[in-house]
Amino acid sequence: MANLGIPRNTIEVLQRHNFTFQKKYGQNFLIDPNVLERVISAAQVTEKDCVLEIGPGIGTMTQLLAERAGSVVAVEIDRNLIPILEETLSPYSNVTIINEDILKLDIRQITEEHGGGGPVKVVANLPYYITTPIVMGLLEGSAPLESITVMVQKEVAERMQAGPGTKEYGALSLAVQYYAQPQVVANVPPNCFIPRPGVGSAVIRLTRYKTPPVEVADEGKLFAMIRASFNQRRKTLANSLGNAPGLKASREEVAKALEEMGLPAMVRGEALTLEQFAELAGRL
Ligand code: SAM
User: Fold this and answer.
1) Residue-averaged pLDDT of the chain
2) Given the CA of residue 57, which atom of ligand 1 is nearest to it?
3) Pocket around ligand 1: residues whose beta carbon is below 6 Å from it?
4) pTM over 0.90
5) Fewer Cβ close by (within 10 Å): the C or N end of the chain?
6) 267 C-alpha to ligand 1 centroid (Å)
7) Residue 46, SS3?
8) Complete domains list, the chain, with CATH
9) Could you tell me the end-to-end alpha-carbon distance of the chain, in angstroms, rounded to an integer?
10) Contact predicate 257/276, CB 8 Å
């Protein structure tokens, strides 16, 4: 099978099928063999694994995954890509193509049907317009996912990995880090894709925790608090959390809890670690 991950072969397949890119689907296809290798090796795919690929495009990465994994399930929304995938993936008997919107699928059911209930690895060059709903849906859901290795917009990867006190740190960092350990494994420039995206990209691996690193009685409350804390970044925590919707704590109660935790009265959300947010949620 010809290596699709070089410009000449990708263009040949696209022209032969008269394919036109759909901007609304975030279609930027990878055409760099080194980057493809970086993604797949970061995902540590072995023949024991079932891999879920989101948005296979013309099947460039899917072919490599099919060669290394036990099985691959590839979910692609664009029906114009399905005949192309049927052609490029025809040599592989371990690939299932599903023509669906990933946000509408029951991922747990897919993992049960195709992964035998065992852990599944997600590997994808994601459509950037829905990165956060896809990643948070995977992390919050009950499907047995071991890791998520994905290409995302560079700034989004930085926010996922950021720690307290940085300008990238926010609700997304804390939400991701409650469920998984993030590690940016590569930065990828726009010229590694056809067409070139208007932003830089990065590959990030999220290794899911078996249990979250902090214990909270009420996850809903923790995340409501985190969202309220970063809604207006420049506000102090006492101001943003006091009387915030869904929290039922007054400004005074928040100030008292912060004091008991040994935190300055004027502290902002961007200074607190996940552990401190969890403790504060418990106290309020
Ligand atoms: N994996 C290919 C590659 O690396 O060359 C394509 C990656 S491209 C950035 C994103 C892919 O996701 C496109 O094929 C696009 O059609 C598909 N896609 C967009 N929205 C989707 C959705 N909601 N569900 C499933 N696939 C989607």
Assistant:
1) 96
2) 14
3) 25-30, 54-57, 60-61, 75-78, 81, 101-103, 125, 127, 130
4) yes
5) N
6) 41
7) coil
8) 7-208 (3.40.50.150), 219-283 (1.10.8.100)
9) 60
10) no
